[in-house]
Design goal:
- The complex is a heterotrimer of chains A (about 475), B (about 270) and C (about 375).
- Chain A is an alpha/beta fold and about 475 residues long.
- Helices cover about 55% and strands about 10% of the residues of chain A.
- Chain A is built from 21 helices and 8 strands.
- The longest helix of chain A is centred in the middle third of the chain and has 27 residues.
- Helix content of chain B is about 40%, strand content about 20%.
- Chain B is built from 8 helices and 10 strands.
- In chain B, strands 3-2-1-4-5 form a 5-stranded mixed β-sheet.
- In chain B, β1 and β2 form a beta hairpin.
- By secondary structure, chain C is an alpha/beta fold.
- Classes of the chains: A alpha/beta (about 475), B alpha/beta (about 270), C alpha/beta (about 375).
- Chains in contact: A-B, A-C, B-C.
- Chains A and C meet through α10, α11, α18, α19 and α20 of A and α6, β4, α7 and α14 of C.
C-alpha cells in the first residue's frame, strides 16, 4: 500500500509514518482501504482542503489517527465505550479518559467514520447500506449517522462495545438505533434523555426544569460508565474533562471569529468544519488537536493581515446554517459560486454568550449552554436564534439547510424563512440536503439553487451600492 | 443584420429539451428547440447551429454566448453559465415588465420565481428531486393512458368531475391510475385529475414565494392548455403565456449575453 | 344495535352542540390524541375537551407541504394541513390546543400551530422512560397544565369536581374494556370497524351521554355472537386516526376480524383506571404515565412488545398487522426487531404496512391484506 503521500498531506513527518506503518496497515486492511481509495482520498484532500496551511494538514492528521485508533480499539484497550452525536455527554467521557486510560472512548459513527470514511475517503456507502439492511431502511428518512453506527457494528467493521451511551434528549434516532442494537446483539445501553417542551416564545428565558432533568440523567450515565469500566470517575478527572473541552472550544472560537469577521474570507469553511466535529468528542490525540488549531489560527491570522482570501473582497455574505457535513465539496461549491460564509453552524455560541467568559463547570451549566442555542430548544428559539445570528454576523442573506432525515431540524426552516424575511428584509433560501449521506444530495444537485441565490444576492448588493 | 450590429446567443440545455435564442439589439433573430440527447455538448452545438442556419450565421458571428439550464456547465462554446432561474427572470421581465411571479414547469423540475420591480429575482422555490409536478409526470401519465402528450391538455378540459390523484410519486400515481380506471372513472376525469395534481403541487411549493400579479407561466408545460386552465383556477387569476414559453430561459440568457457584451465594450 | 344508533344521533348533533357551547362562552380545549392528556382536568375547569384525531385524508397532507417538510410523520403533518384548510369544524373551534410532547413529530404539530395559526398552544413533556424522575417530570407537567387551564378558563379546578369527572372516565374505560373483552369470543359481537369508530367517537362525544350509551351497549351485546371470521388479527402501530379506516375495513372486508388494537395515538387507552385514593394529580400521573403501556419510543422497549404479545395470546389472534405512518422513525426502527421477537416467541406472522395517506396505496394494500388474512388462517404455532 502506498500511503506515504496521503499521510504527508495529513501533516505526518516521514519518521512518524514509518513508526505508525504497522498500525496504519492493520487499520486500512480492517476498513478495506486500498490503493485506489488512498488515491481518491489524496485527490479529495487537495481539492477540498487548504493543505497549503500546515494547521489544516495537522487537523486532517488528527482525524486519520482517530480512524486508526477506532480500528484497533479492541486490541489496544481493555474496554470499549461508544457515545455518538449529539455528544454533550462526551464531556463526561473526556473525564473518564483521564480516570481510565486503558478504556477506549469513541464516537465511531457520527464523527470518525462519517468524517474520515465519508468526507475524506468517500467510502461510506457500504456502511450506510449495511445500516439500511439492519433496521434503518432507505426511503424512510433515517439519519445517516445512525445508519453508519448500526451498519458498522452489524458488518463487524467496528467491535461491539461494552457500553453505548445514547443521547435521546434531542432526537429519537440515537436511542431507537441503540435499542435495536441492544435487542439484536445484547449490547448494554444507557440513555441521556430529556424533553423539548418549551412553550412558544419562551426562549431565551429557558428556566431550569428541562435542564435539571437532563442533568439528573447525566448522573445516571456517569454511574453506568463507572460500573462498566470498573473504575470511579473522580471529581478532579471530570473537571479535567470539562477543561479539556473548554480549551479546544476556546481555540476553536478564536478560529471561527477570525474567519467570520475577515473580508475577504481568508480560508475555506471546510477547515472550521473539521474542528467543529472535534468539540464534544473524546479525542485520542487531544493535545495534537489543540496544537493544530492554535497553529491554524496563526496561519489564518497571517492571511487576514495580508488581506489574502479565497473569495473576492466584498463577496455577498450568507449565514449557511447546518451545512451538509459529510461532503466538504458542498461547502466548496457554495464558496465557488461566490458566496462568503462567515459562519456555518446552527449551534454556535450566541452573541451574548461570546461576550461572557462562561466557564462550563457542571452538567447543568453544560446543558444550559446547549439550550441557549435556540435551535436545540424549540422552533421559536431556532427562529429567534437564526435571526440574531444573521444580525450578529452581518450577512446579506441566509441559507437555511435541513438534513431531510433529521426530525428536529426539519421543523423550523420554512417558518424561519418567513420570519427572517419579514424581520430583517434579507433573502432566505431553504435548502434540503442530508447532513451525512451524499447519495441523495450532491453538490452538483444543489448547485443551481445556490448559484441562483448567489446571483440574487449579488444583484441586490449592486442595486444597494448604486 | 445591419453592419455593426452584433449577435449574441443564449443556450438553454434542459433535462428534456435544448433551446437556443439568437438576438441582436434585444430583437430575436432566430431560435431553435430540440430534444436533449445523451451528450449535452453535442446537443448544445446542434441546436445552436440550427438557429444560426435560419439566419445564415455561423458560430464565429456570435460575440457572446451564455449557457443555462441543467447542462449549462457542459456547453464548451459558451462564455459564461448562468442558472435558468435568473435567465427566466430576465426573459420574462423583458417581454412583460409587469411580471412579478413566474411559474416554470419544465421536463424534470418546476420552479416558482419571484421578481422585483427591476426584474431581479427576489425569491424562488424549486421542487426537490421528485417528478410529481413536472412535465415528466405528465409524460408518464400520458403513456399510462395511451394518449400523446399533445392530446393531454385538450382532453383534460372536457372533464366535468376531475379525479382526486393523491400520489406524490410518479410510480405510485401510475398504480393509482390503474385502480381509478378499474373503478370506472372516465379518461377525461383521470386526465383532468392528473393536471390538477401537477398544479396543486406547484401551488403548494410556491406558497413561500407568493403569487403576486402578473403571473407568467413558462416552460414546455405552459403550452398545455389544461395545466394553464387549472393553474388559473387554483391561483384565482389569469396567467400570461407567451407565444413560445419554452424559450424563456434561452431568451433571458441571450439578453444577459447582450448586457455582458455591452459591459465589456464600454469598459 | 340500538345503542349504536343512539350514539350516531348524538354525534350528528354534537358539532352543533359544541358550537353552541362555545358561543355561550365555554372554552373548547383541543388536544393531541396520544393518550397523555387527562381530559378530566379540562372538565373540572368548566371547559370541554376535543381530541384532534382526524387523519387519512390526502388533501391535508398535500396542504401541509407549505408549512412543514414532508419527512415528518404523516398524521402529524396532516394536523397543520387540516387547520390551514379550515374545513374541519372541530379544528376550527378550539380556543387552546394542548400538546403533550411525546416526540419530535408531535412537537412539529405544536410548533406549526404556534407559528401559522392564531390558536394558543400549550405543551408539556412526556419523558421516554418510566424511572422515578420521569414520572416526576410528567407530574410536574400536569401541574403546569392544571395551572394553565385555571388561568385560561378563569375557573379553579376543585378536587371534588375533578374526582367526579374521573369517576365518569373510569366508567367509560371500564365499558370500553368490557366491549373489548367481548371480542375474545370466537364470534365477536363487535367488529373491529365498529370498535374503532366507537373509540374515536369518545374523543368528542359528550362524556355523560357516551358513558350511558357504552353501558347500554355492553348490556345489549352480552352473550351475543357475531358472524365469526377466517382469521383473527391484532393491529398495532403509531396512529389509528379518525377517518383512517382502510386497514380495519380492508382486513374485515377480506373476511378477517380485527379483534384487538394497540396504538400510540388515535385509539383511546382503556386498560387502566385512575385510583381515587390519595392525591389526585399523582393518581392521574400514575394512570396516564406509569401504568400506561408506552409507545415504541420508550426505553427500554420491551414493555410494549411484551404487552402486544400478551394481547395476541389472550385474543387468540392468527396474525399481527403493524400499521405505521411514513417517517415515524421510532416505529419504523422498532418494527425490525418487533417482528423477530414476535415470530420467535409466539410463532405469529407480522405484516408491516406503511401509509402516507395516499389513495394509490389502497389497491396494493387490498391485495396484501387479502393474502395475509388467507395465509395466517389457523397459522398459530
Amino acid at each position: 500500500m502506498k500511503y506515504a503521500e496521503l499521510f504527508r498531506l495529513c501533516g505526518f513527518e516521514p519518521a512518524e509514518i514509518e513508526k505508525e506503518s504497522p498500525r496504519i496497515e492493520k487499520a486500512f486492511r480492517k476498513f478495506g482501504i486500498g490503493d485506489e481509495d488512498i488515491k481518491r482520498a489524496e485527490g479529495r484532500i487537495k481539492e477540498y482542503y487548504d493543505v497549503e496551511l500546515m494547521g489544516v494538514r495537522k487537523l486532517l492528521g488528527v482525524w486519520m489517527k482517530e480512524l486508526i485508533a477506532l480500528a484497533l480499539c479492541r486490541e489496544e484497550h481493555r474496554k470499549v465505550v461508544y457515545s455518538e452525536w449529539p455528544g454533550v455527554q462526551n464531556i463526561l467521557l473526556m473525564g473518564a479518559m483521564h480516570a481510565a486510560p486503558d478504556v477506549y472512548f469513541g464516537t465511531p459513527g457520527s464523527q470518525t467514520l462519517n468524517l474520515v470514511m465519508g468526507g475524506i475517503f468517500d467510502k461510506l456507502r457500504p456502511i450506510l447500506e449495511a445500516g439500511e439492511e439492519t433496521g434503518l431502511p432507505a426511503g424512510s428518512a433515517h439519519c445517516a449517522l445512525w445508519q453508519t453506527h448500526v451498519g458498522a457494528i452489524a458488518k463487524g467493521l467496528i467491535p461491539k462495545p461494552d457500553l453505548m451511551i445514547s443521547a435521546g434528549w434531542y432526537c429519537d434516532q440515537p436511542a431507537e438505533a441503540d435499542q435495536l442494537l441492544h435487542e439484536l446483539y445484547g449490547i448494554p445501553v444507557v440513555y441521556l434523555d430529556g424533553c423539548l417542551d418549551w412553550q412558544w416564545g419562551e426562549w431565551p428565558n429557558i428556566g431550569t426544569r428541562q435542564i435539571k432533568y437532563v442533568a439528573g440523567k447525566w448522573a445516571k450515565v456517569k454511574q453506568k460508565v463507572e460500573e462498566v469500566i470498573g473504575r470511579e470517575i473522580p471529581f478532579e478527572a471530570e473537571r479535567q474533562g470539562l477543561r479539556d473541552n473548554a480549551k479546544l472550544f476556546y481555540n476553536f472560537n478564536t478560529l471561527v471569529e477570525l474567519v467570520g469577521k475577515a473580508d475577504p474570507q481568508p480560508v475555506s469553511q471546510t477547515v472550521t468544519d473539521l474542528v467543529y466535529w472535534m468539540s464534544y468528542t473524546p479525542l485520542q490525540n487531544r493535545e495534537e488537536a489543540n496544537e493544530a488549531v492554535t497553529l491554524l489560527c496563526k496561519e489564518v491570522k497571517q492571511r487576514v493581515d495580508q488581506g489574502k482570501g479565497v473569495l473576492p473582497k466584498g463577496a455577498p455574505r450568507v449565514y449557511f446554517g447546518l451545512r451538509i457535513a459529510v461532503d466538504p465539496g458542498i461547502l466548496r461549491m457554495v464558496e465557488d459560486v461566490g458566496l462568503s460564509m462567515p459562519i456555518i453552524f446552527v449551534d454556535w455560541l450566541t452573541p451574548q454568550e461570546r461576550q461572557k467568559t462562561s466557564s462550563v463547570a457542571t452538567p447543568e451549566k453544560v446543558m444550559e449552554g446547549l439550550f441557549r442555542r435556540g435551535c436545540l430548544c424549540s422552533a421559536s428559539g431556532a427562529i429567534d436564534y437564526f435571526a440574531e445570528y444573521c444580525k450578529a454576523w452581518n450577512v446579506d442573506g441566509a441559507i437555511l439547510c435541513y438534513p431531510y432525515s433529521c426530525r428536529p431540524y426539519t421543523i423550523p426552516p420554512l417558518m424561519a424563512k418567513k420570519a427572517i424575511k419579514e424581520r430583517l428584509g434579507i433573502p432566505v433560501m431553504v435548502l434540503e440536503g442530508d447532513a451525512y449521506d451524499t447519495r441523495q444530495y450532491s453538490a452538483g444537485a444543489l448547485r443551481t439553487r445556490v448559484e441562483t441565490f448567489a446571483e440574487l444576492l449579488k444583484a441586490r448588493k449592486a442595486a444597494t451600492a448604486a | 443584420m445591419e453592419r455593426g450590429d452584433v449577435a449574441v446567443a443564449g443556450v438553454d440545455v434542459g433535462a428534456a429539451t435544448a433551446k437556443t435564442v439568437i438576438i441582436c439589439d434585444g430583437r430575436v433573430l432566430a431560435y431553435s428547440i430540440m430534444p436533449t440527447g445523451h451528450s449535452v455538448p453535442r446537443t448544445a452545438e446542434t441546436v445552436t447551429k440550427q438557429a444560426l442556419d435560419k439566419v445564415g450565421l455561423s458560430l464565429a458571428d456570435l460575440r457572446y454566448i451564455i449557457s443555462t439550464g441543467y447542462g449549462r456547465n457542459s456547453v464548451p462554446f459558451a462564455n459564461k453559465a448562468v442558472t435558468e432561474i435568473i435567465c427566466h427572470g430576465k426573459g420574462a421581465y423583458h417581454l412583460r415588465p409587469a411580471v412579478r411571479t413566474i411559474v416554470d414547469i419544465g421536463g424534470q423540475d418546476s420552479k416558482v420565481i419571484g421578481l422585483g420591480e427591476n426584474g431581479n429575482v427576489t425569491d424562488f422555490a424549486m421542487n426537490d428531486k421528485c417528478a410529481a409536478g413536472t412535465g415528466r409526470f405528465l409524460e408518464v401519465m400520458a403513456q399510462v393512458l395511451d394518449l400523446s402528450i399533445e392530446e393531454m391538455g385538450p382532453v383534460s378540459l372536457t372533464s366535468k368531475a376531475p379525479c382526486q390523484i393523491s400520489s406524490t410519486c410518479t410510480i405510485f400515481a401510475e398504480s393509482e391510475m390503474v385502480s381509478l380506471r378499474a373503478e370506472g372513472r372516465s379518461r377525461e376525469d383521470l386526465v383532468a385529475g392528473i393536471h390538477r395534481s401537477v398544479v396543486s403541487r406547484v401551488a403548494v411549493m410556491g406558497r413561500s414565494v407568493g403569487f403576486r400579479r402578473e403571473v407568467m407561466f413558462t416552460g414546455g408545460v405552459a403550452k398545455n392548455v389544461g395545466v394553464r386552465k387549472f393553474l388559473e383556477d387554483e391561483l384565482g387569476m389569469e396567467v400570461i403565456v407567451t407565444e413560445e414559453p419554452q424559450i424563456m430561459g434561452a431568451l433571458g440568457a441571450a439578453l444577459l449575453a447582450g448586457a455582458e457584451l455591452n459591459a465589456s465594450l464600454t469598459s | 344495535m340500538e345503542a349504536m344508533r343512539t350514539l350516531q344521533d348524538h354525534l350528528d348533533r354534537r358539532v352543533g352542540e359544541l358550537q353552541r357551547l362555545k358561543k355561550e362562552g365555554v372554552k373548547i380545549i383541543g388536544y393531541a390524541p396520544g393518550g397523555y392528556m387527562p381530559e378530566d382536568l379540562v372538565y373540572a375547569a368548566g371547559a370541554v375537551p376535543v381530541g384532534l384525531v382526524r387523519g387519512g385524508d390526502h388533501e391535508a397532507v398535500a396542504e401541509s407541504a407549505a408549512y412543514l417538510p414532508r419527512f415528518l410523520d404523516t398524521f402529524c403533518r396532516s394536523q397543520i394541513g387540516y387547520k390551514m384548510l379550515g374545513e374541519e369544524p372541530l379544528y376550527e373551534m378550539v380556543d387552546l390546543f394542548v400538546v403533550p410532547v411525546t416526540d419530535n413529530n408531535m412537537r412539529a404539530v405544536a410548533e406549526s400551530w404556534s407559528f401559522y395559526t392564531g390558536v394558543e398552544v400549550f405543551r408539556f413533556g412526556v419523558p421516554h422512560d418510566k424511572e422515578d424522575d420521569a414520572y416526576q417530570y410528567y407530574l410536574e407537567g400536569l401541574r403546569m397544565l392544571r395551572d394553565k387551564l385555571e388561568r385560561f378558563t378563569g375557573n379553579k379546578i376543585e378536587d371534588s369536581r375533578l374526582k367526579d369527572s374521573i369517576r365518569l372516565s373510569n366508567r367509560m374505560w371500564e365499558s370500553l374494556e368490557k366491549l373489548s373483552l367481548l371480542r375474545k369470543s370466537a364470534r365477536p359481537p363487535v367488529s373491529g370497524a365498529e370498535f374503532a369508530r366507537l373509540n374515536h367517537a369518545s374523543f368528542y362525544a359528550d362524556k355523560p351521554a357516551l358513558v350511558n350509551i357504552l353501558e347500554s351497549l355492553c348490556a345489549e351485546l352480552k352473550g351475543k355472537e357475531g358472524p365469526g371470521a377466517k382469521s383473527r388479527v391484532l393491529v398495532t402501530g403509531s396512529t389509528l386516526a379518525m377517518g383512517d379506516y382502510k386497514i380495519v375495513d380492508l382486513t374485515e372486508g377480506a373476511g378477517g376480524a380485527v379483534v384487538i388494537e394497540e396504538f400510540a395515538e388515535g385509539m383511546r387507552h382503556y386498560w387502566q383506571r385512575v385510583n381515587l385514593e390519595g392525591a389526585v394529580l399523582e393518581a392521574l400521573a400514575d394512570r396516564y404515565f406509569r401504568r400506561r403501556v408506552p409507545p415504541a419510543w420508550f426505553r427500554p422497549s420491551r414493555e410494549r412488545i411484551d404487552f402486544v404479545m400478551k394481547l395476541a395470546r389472550e385474543y387468540a389472534v392468527d396474525g399481527i398487522i403493524w400499521y405505521q405512518l411514513m417517517y415515524r422513525d421510532g416505529y419504523d426502527i422498532q418494527s425490525f426487531y418487533f417482528e423477530k421477537i414476535v415470530e420467535k416467541e409466539t410463532g405469529l406472522r407480522v405484516l408491516k404496512v406503511q401509509s402516507d395517506y395516499d389513495r394509490s396505496e389502497i389497491g396494493p394494500l387490498r391485495t396484501r391484506l387479502e393474502t395475509f388474512v388467507e395465509t395466517v388462517k389457523g397459522g398459530r404455532k
